[in-house]
């Protein structure tokens, strides 16, 4: 059937179904093939906290959202334009996020008596007219597949397994995407199992053909490719980016990589990846707890390895004492905290930016540490390397903050040209002449670092205060004051070695939206839009949380009003006020999910309407 | 990948003419005069000199406590770290640097109280460390509180009306946690201690050596019954692999099995002979449980020496190295790793 | 001092006609269909109903893990706390409230990994708790990483090339830590499990009950060899106090001592009789070490049932109560305490 | 010999000697008898980190400083007026703290060859004229004692044991104090050992007589008694005050007291005291570590006990995760942190105020907690009760900050009239009607608290986010936001239930010195003096750190310039700026010792000279 074609600059698609329905799989594939096609992409998987929630329940819904565009895309999409709903519950929980006129593709097999009851529907929404304002296409996918696969001699329940692939076929048609690369993908995936491969290959084609022939699908949505820098691309999650960043940093510093860690959602995958990278020489210990995790990393660091420990909120709290040791012993160490919704166990599968306070201030004694915060999935890679650079150059533990949203979301990432990355070789002291463990580099204030195995450099360090420039334990008060100040200054001075903060939009003016970490995408989407509409609003985004970029104070002073959106209760706001004495406006969201761009847009519009402070 | 360490290409110093003195640092020793720890450090310095390992290849890690001040008095790479955390720090160091000999110095509080979890896991994993537990049955550095090895009823600053807890028997705990080398000595028996330190060193996996030491300030004579040169002849039994388990001033008593239990039999009455006596087998974990459990039993002598020494259990480090040997490709292309399984090119 | 609790004067509800159902909360159980935990909760609910204790006097404390979701499905006072910390929280509750029956529900990760230290200390102190360890040899809630009971070489998400660590044997660890009640059951043997729960309850001190349970998602059939109704007849031995230790489909094999080691002997060849077979004595810690150590040994059956039950060891709570009984003076004058030994009056 | 008499309004005496010389003993006794006499007193013991440092060494010096006055005394004394030096090292380490014209009483037996070498003296300072600017009195105490005790048949080394008591006798004469009460004290102390008692009794008299007869002591220093409110007094350390405060709070709340703790300097004594208070029904667990300490306290709290856990810096860091649990589970709990010099092990025997940041911000997630900070040894008592009041009334963990200085120092404390203390009875819910664990009191926002054993109130709580007003676990985003805000509001609201901050001096003006915690004494001494000299400077002192007193903002605005002295690197300063956007001036000392009053005085004078900001 001939289709109309509608060209769009972005589109949000959500596959939703039961946990067992394979939604993550087709979502991922759509994002890959959109990346290949030349779109920019951002995605977010959304699965239940329970390992296997009972089938058909509201809390058992699993979904995968893909936002594609012909312009840069920085969020998973505020609202859904096209939704696949494989059962009643998946429709119900996602309904409130649809755009007006959204297309809903529903499999009627998921809307039988039982499913409706589990979802709490009194009437079948596919039939009672309640979805009238959307474009609803109900399909009996079972029937379609049964026809298409009839000669394969499959069990009925095996036929149903391909429902997800069928819907991918439908979506490909609606987006006018060729199936070739998806066929290849199926081959890579199921090549070993001929029958399964055949079933899924046919299911894909079947969905595609269904959409081709069905008069209900009268329009194709064309999201044209965009110009992208040349290179190899892939989709990457924040967790994988951290793992790959650390392996890269190991190459660049010429230090073998060691991971000491303990599993915790949503950070565990970094452990999964690194534990599998033996090919790249990674050593690891899944420790007995988070304290063992960080302490083994400290030991490896003392031995001259590039050491990293990874965790999330509760584990971060447990590592605090050992972090203080790394501060006073002045040891290079990277601590990755994938923030999740707290306090305590909180909502472990949800995301939040609420560990900034503790990263900044959460250690007994004066124990300053550099802190970085990744602003996107791909940025996790860059900042893992940057954290390693700072840690090894300045002889200090460094905290890298990401969060559940970045950790699990994906975006296309252009592989770096490894050979062009800076040489970060860590040089250890080998010459006994003038060696003292607490003697410092004049510029970086880093102490001298000699590792075991180096003849004649035997020495002793620890958690007791040390004589400045020397090696002896010291309980002298004046020396302690000097040491506290040096440790502070060492961290503060890093400000001279990091990029200045950049302002998008006008450099001076009324409103600056200041963000940090994972709010980047939503702020960028919102303010780009506002600026394109001629609104006067500028943006700056922090990735360096301690020390701040040198020009932050100046930038703050260049604006009448500063708005800080955070998915916490206003932690950066307090820190900025404390440090710069600049009153800030807060926009706080604590719902376990990232900002929608429109939430930020609305807040800025409200401020614009109110006029100057 | 070549690392900076590979490039360092440090020529190890000679280990040949090392003496105990080479292992002494310039720092003034600040233990109380008469503290049991003096003997232990002297024995370790002697043993290290014997070991034939370059000085810079030896690393010592301690926690916090009187005993944990040890590193400052040694002339090695040495780290005085966090209360209870010497073992995980040492584990990381050991895994990162398979070329080192790593020693942990820890106290009954440091190792068995706050550090208990790390301790049992190091035993379980057969982590390649030599762990020296300085057991004085008290928290000394904090001036005299009960420790997990203090006896029930002991009056200390924190148990003014008597301790309420039953203590650990460290060798039993270690054995139960899966340790592969378990031994016990006392600071008052220097020669034996040197021997045990050397045995601990020779054992490839986790070596646990409990050492009785006296805190004359806060728990004087707590372990005298098993440390005093004369008394200990009757109250302890020195274990030797492959030899019958006999003790007493004139070796006139032996240990015999009575079902699943050990009992003491006299060897000078004619009723029992050496043939009835249990023969020590340090390669047998059943034997180790039996022996270490005797420590609880006031009717039986307390075993000293090497209780267990299993030489056929792979260590965590060996397994890591084996995996690396199999999978590590020094020339592996990083770009392949970065690209993952699904990538595309924009031209 | 009269406390508000004294004044509360709550009349306990009747424990008489309680049924398993009374212990079921309204919350929907969210374990995977087929999870081994379903059987365990059913057995506990039945056992609690049998115990003849008012419902409100029973408190359950758990850590974090699939197994630790347990409290939500119970109709008691129940606390779902912090990963690894169920035991110390339960200990505080128990010491504060000697009138309660306190149960800990924990997993192999929760109890033996992050919570290991608290676990061994609760054993040592003979803390009055009933500890139920749900052992599925995996971290399930976090979706499949190796745990301290996972076998060497097991491929999990966090050990994609095979686990490098030797596992703990939980009953050995507990025994080595000084536990006074050690038992093991499996979710697939409901009747025995109820019996063991009741025994744990009857034991006054720390009762440790390891329960094999299957995580069909992340470690399916890991413990099948000792849980499957048919297979387990040959691979396990059910212990009965005072009875010879025999096993096998037709009870045709027994355990006999060979020096300090146990060995299997056939009882149907005429060579050995029941008289040669070791008799189980749950009051003997030597026996407990011997039996629990058999778990490591693939040539021997794995012991199930009550391995150890020492009834003559005072508990931490008993000793606290004894000290209080001796010293606590409800009418003690607070001003005397405040004034201390050196005070003066300004008139 | 007839003496001149000189009347002073305060005097600082320091007993210094080797660790084994019993300086703590006589120092304590001087402070008690001065209190009895009617002086105000403040003291500080100062002993080596080592348990038994080798005799005669510089680091083995033990000292006890007593500051007495006929006006209120709030510090241990900036400088020493009268020093006893029993050996060369004790002279050397204390010399820099003497006032001009200070009296030094030295025992020549501590200045032999060996002692001089250990102290690093080339020449004997008692003889080389280097002490010319002081009034030096050298005594051969051994000879004096040998004469006085000759008939007791004591070993020479036993005779030397009474040197400390001899010096107490000397001091008593110089201060014109009767010996009666000290004789009684000796009886109480040595009553069991007749010979020792006799020796010490004579030694006391002997010292007294020596001073009476020696022409070198030509002046007596009269520090007259002051008017003090009627009542029973005693000297008390901060640690003992905390212990007694908790026992008192237990009486007032009618909740049995439970302590879960792990030893750590300088907090351990609280454990020592409470473990000994079985007579008062205290239960305790010396846990395996700090985590076990706080967790057992949490368990006891769940059981309806008044629960407390005590620690210092490193242990505080370890308790952080569990504190977060107490926040979300909304459990009453008192956490005492006796701050010491950090980071990490730092200088464990020295004092610092550097854990304010972590108390305020050191938990993952949004986890606000009330924080109190004691301003004096005696205040530790009041605030232990106050912490218990807030914890039980608002169902929240509360942090009480003290520090090494308060913990070990002493001051006279007037016993409260127990019967007049407020009734803090904690009422538990017993009525099933309408019970929900997260239903709240409208005013306090405290949740309903039912303890095990209460029929029909069985329920389940934990570290996962809960349904507001209900009992079910909830991962609903909107509910989470509500709960985060309620937990914050609950803490903020406590501001309505605490005293307003009071300003000493003029209520509006140029300079406000704002202090918190243990800096009280020095600030008070300095600013009282300045005000008495007509300088315009006001003072306010915070004991409530979170929430702050309601009028703090207003007070800050009433002054041009605010000076915050802290023994840390400026933690309160940052917090005040962040919250009130008021620029503050900082005075930071990180020497492990408290401020001297003159340091604060000088800073204020400097500000006064500079004029308005
Ligand atoms: C986290 C932490 N908790 C507590 C302490 C205080 N502390 C220092 S050493 C010690 C106990 C030492 O006992 P042990 O290990 O037996 O050593 P010993 O002094 O007897 O040699 C304690 C509790 C600390 N330094 N850090
Ligand atoms: C401090 C902390 N670290 C890590 C976690 C993550 N975590 C939750 S449950 C769990 C392991 C659970 O394993 P187990 O105790 O065996 O329980 P199971 O799920 O197998 O029943 C882990 C690592 C956490 N919640 N808190
Ligand atoms: S206090 Fe005890 S353990 Fe510490 S140095 Fe002195 S004698 Fe040794
Ligand atoms: S994941 Fe495993 S342990 Fe968890 S509920 Fe499912 S089957 Fe049970
Ligand atoms: Mg000790
Ligand atoms: Mg498990």
List the helices and strands and how they pair.
The complex is a heterotetramer, with 2 copies of chain A (613 residues) and 2 copies of chain B (347 residues).
Chain A: E1 4-7, E2 10-18, H1 23-37, E3 40-46, E4 61-69, E5 80-85, H2 88-94, E6 98-107, H3 113-119, E7 135-139, H4 141-149, H5 156-160, H6 163-174, H7 180-190, H8 194-213, E8 219-222, E9 231-237, H9 238-253, E10 257-261, H10 268-275, E11 283-286, H11 290-302, E12 306-311, H12 313-318, H13 320-329, E13 333-339, H14 356-361, E14 371-373, H15 377-394, E15 397-403, H16 404-408, E16 410-414, E17 460-462, H17 477-493, E18 503-504, E19 509-516, H18 520-532, E20 537-542, E21 544-546, H19 552-557, E22 559-566, H20 571-580, E23 585-588, H21 597-610
Parallel strand pairs in A: 1-8, 2-5, 5-6, 6-7, 10-11, 10-12, 12-13, 13-15, 14-15, 19-20, 19-22, 22-23
Antiparallel strand pairs in A: 2-4, 3-4, 9-16, 14-21, 18-20
Helix pairs in contact in A: 1-6, 2-3, 4-8, 6-8, 7-8, 9-10, 9-15, 18-21
Chain B: H1 4-8, H2 37-50, E1 58-62, E2 77-80, H3 86-96, E3 101-107, H4 108-114, H5 116-125, E4 130-135, H6 170-176, E5 181-186, H7 190-202, E6 207-212, H8 224-227, H9 232-235, E7 236-239, E8 246-247, E9 253-258, E10 261-266, H10 285-293, E11 302-309, H11 316-327, H12 334-339, E12 343-346
Parallel strand pairs in B: 1-2, 1-3, 3-4, 4-6, 5-6, 7-11
Antiparallel strand pairs in B: 5-11, 8-9, 9-10
Helix pairs in contact in B: 2-7, 4-5, 6-10
The complex binds thiamine diphosphate (2 copies), iron/sulfur cluster (2 copies) and magnesium ion (2 copies).
């Amino acid at each position: 059937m001939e289709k109309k074609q509608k060209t769009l600059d972005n589109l949000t698609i959500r596959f939703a179904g039961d946990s067992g329905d394979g939604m993550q799989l087709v979502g991922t594939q759509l994002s890959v093939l959109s990346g290949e096609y030349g779109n920019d992409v951002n995605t977010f998987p959304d699965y239940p906290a329970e390992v296997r929630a009972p089938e058909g329940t509201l809390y058992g819904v699993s979904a995968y959202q893909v936002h594609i565009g012909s312009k840069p895309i920085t969020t998973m999409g505020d609202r859904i334009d096209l939704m696949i709903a494989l059962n009643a519950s998946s429709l119900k929980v996602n309904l409130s996020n649809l755009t007006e006129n959204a297309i809903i593709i529903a499999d009627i097999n998921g809307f039988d008596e039982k499913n409706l009851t589990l979802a709490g529907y009194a009437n079948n929404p596919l039939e009672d007219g309640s979805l009238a304002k959307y474009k609803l296409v109900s399909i009996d996918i079972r029937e379609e597949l049964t026809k298409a696969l009839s000669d394969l001699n499959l069990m009925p329940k095996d036929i149903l397994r391909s429902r997800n692939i069928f819907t991918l076929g439908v979506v490909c048609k609606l987006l006018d995407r060729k199936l070739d690369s998806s066929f290849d993908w199926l081959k890579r995936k199921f090549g070993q199992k001929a029958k399964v491969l055949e079933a899924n290959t046919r299911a894909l084609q079947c969905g595609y053909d269904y959409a081709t022939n069905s008069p209900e699908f009268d329009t194709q949505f064309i999201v044209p490719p965009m110009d992208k820098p040349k290179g190899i691309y892939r989709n990457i999650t924040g967790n994988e980016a951290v793992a790959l960043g650390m392996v890269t940093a190991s190459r660049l510093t010429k230090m073998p990589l060691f991971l000491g860690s303990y599993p915790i959602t949503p950070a565990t995958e970094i452990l999964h990846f690194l534990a599998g990278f033996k090919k790249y020489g990674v050593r690891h210990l899944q420790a007995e707890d988070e304290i063992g995790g960080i302490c083994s990393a400290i030991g490896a660091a003392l031995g001259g390895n590039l050491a990293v420990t990874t965790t999330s909120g509760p584990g971060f709290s447990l590592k605090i004492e050992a972090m203080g040791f790394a501060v006073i012993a002045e040891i290079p160490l990277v601590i990755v905290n994938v923030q999740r919704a707290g306090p305590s166990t909180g909502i472990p599968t949800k995301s939040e930016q609420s560990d900034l306070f503790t990263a900044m201030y959460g250690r007994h004694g004066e124990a300053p540490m550099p802190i970085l915060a990744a602003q996107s999935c791909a940025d996790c890679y860059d900042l893992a390397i940057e954290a390693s650079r700072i840690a090894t150059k300045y002889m200090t533990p460094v905290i890298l903050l990401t969060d559940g949203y970045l950790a699990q979301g994906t975006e296309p990432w252009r592989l770096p040209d490894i050979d062009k990355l800076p040489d970060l070789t860590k040089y250890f002291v080998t010459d006994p002449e003038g060696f003292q463990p607490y003697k410092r580099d004049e510029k970086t204030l880093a102490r001298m670092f000699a590792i075991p195995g180096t003849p004649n450099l035997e020495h002793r360090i620890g958690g007791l205060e040390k004589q400045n420039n020397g090696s002896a334990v010291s309980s002298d008060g004046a020396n302690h004051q000097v040491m506290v100040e040096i440790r502070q200054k060492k961290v503060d001075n890093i400000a001279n070695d990091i990029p200045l903060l950049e302002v998008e939009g006008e450099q001076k003016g009324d409103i600056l939206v200041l963000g940090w970490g994972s709010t980047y995408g939503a702020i960028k989407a919102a303010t780009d839009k506002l600026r394109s509409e001629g609104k006067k609003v500028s943006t700056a985004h922090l990735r360096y949380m301690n020390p701040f970029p040198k020009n932050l104070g100046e930038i703050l002073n260049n604006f009448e009003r500063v708005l800080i959106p955070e998915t916490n209760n206003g932690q950066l706001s307090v820190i900025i006020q404390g440090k710069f004495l600049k009153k800030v406006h807060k926009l706080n969201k604590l719902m376990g999910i990232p900002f929608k761009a429109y939430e930020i847009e609305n807040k800025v519009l409200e401020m614009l309407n109110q006029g100057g402070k | 990948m070549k690392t900076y360490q590979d490039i360092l290409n440090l020529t190890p110093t000679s280990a040949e003419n090392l003496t105990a003195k080479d292992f002494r640092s310039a720092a003034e020793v600040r233990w109380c005069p008469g503290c049991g720890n003096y003997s232990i450090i002297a024995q370790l310095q002697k043993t290290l000199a014997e070991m034939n390992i370059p000085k810079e290849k030896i690393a010592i890690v301690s926690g916090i406590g009187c005993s944990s001040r040890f590193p400052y008095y040694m002339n090695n790479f040495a780290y005085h770290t966090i209360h209870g955390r010497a073992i995980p720090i040492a584990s990381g160091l050991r895994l990162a640097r398979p070329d080192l000999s790593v020693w942990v110095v820890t106290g009954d509080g440091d190792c068995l109280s706050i550090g208990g979890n790390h301790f049992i896991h190091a035993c379980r994993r057969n982590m390649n460390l030599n762990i020296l537990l300085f057991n004085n049955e008290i928290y000394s550095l904090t001036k005299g509180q009960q420790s997990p090895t203090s006896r029930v009823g002991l009056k200390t600053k924190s148990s003014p009306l008597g301790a309420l807890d039953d203590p650990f028997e460290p060798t039993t705990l270690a054995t139960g946690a899966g340790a592969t080398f378990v031994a016990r000595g006392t600071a008052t028996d220097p020669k034996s201690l040197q021997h045990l330190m050397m045995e601990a060193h020779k054992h490839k996996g986790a070596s646990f050596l409990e050492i009785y030491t006296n805190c004359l300030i806060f728990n004087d004579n707590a372990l005298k019954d098993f440390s005093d040169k004369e008394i200990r002849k009757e109250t302890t039994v020195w274990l030797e692999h492959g030899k019958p388990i006999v003790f007493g001033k004139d070796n006139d008593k032996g240990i015999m099995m009575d079902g699943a239990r050990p009992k003491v039999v006299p060897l000078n009455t004619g009723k029992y002979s050496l043939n009835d006596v249990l023969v020590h087998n340090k390669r047998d974990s059943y034997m180790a449980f039996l022996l270490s459990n005797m420590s609880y039993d006031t009717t039986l002598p307390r075993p000293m020496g090497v209780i267990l020494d299993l030489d056929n259990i792979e260590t965590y480090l060996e397994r890591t190295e084996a995996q690396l040997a199999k999978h590590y490709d020094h020339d592996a292309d990083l770009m392949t790793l970065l690209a993952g399984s699904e990538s595309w090119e924009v031209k």
